[in-house]
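Request: Give me one sample?
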Amino acid sequence: MVHKVENYRKINMFEKFLDFVGCQKNEKISSVNEFCEVLNGKSFLNGMYRLFKTDDIEKWTAITEQAFPLYKGRFSVFGYDWLGRIFALNKKTGTVLLFEPGTGEVLDIPASFEDFHNVEIADYNEDSLASDFFKKWFFQNNKYKLKNSECAGYKVPLFLNGDDVIENLEVSDMEVYWEIMMPLMNM
């Protein structure tokens, strides 16, 4: 999921992302820390992509480490998507990690935090957020907007031969979904 970074004006460090998600650019964001502060806990695109609240980062880092113990101490979570997949920054490489409870896999996305938002999400959202699958699910579920505590989790996880279809998804409390998937992933 690596894509060529196009040249664009950097009036706002995250301008492409903000344009894509439809945020008003009242404030100029000039750093990753400022991005996290200004957009703390926000949900974008009807719940397709969300940022963790600052108060929840420690809890979700611990949950993710428990589910994927080989990565303990090596990342810091920052966001999640509608499928309950967690995005984190690899402390060693500065690239983005994707923790997938439905598949039991971790993917290394060779993009910085800024490029992940401005390129991967803004330009390649099908690859990074399964946006076409989300749109089908969203309309099939009467435009249900997921709460920040919810995800569309797999009834039968893909790693247990579940099908990657809308009928295999159900709205779940994200913390409960991760707690259920954890022992299954670590069998």
Remarks:
- The radius of gyration is 16 Å.
- Residues 2-10 have pLDDT under 50 and may be disordered.
- The CA atoms of residues 21 and 44 lie 6 Å apart.
- The first helix runs from residue 15 to 21.
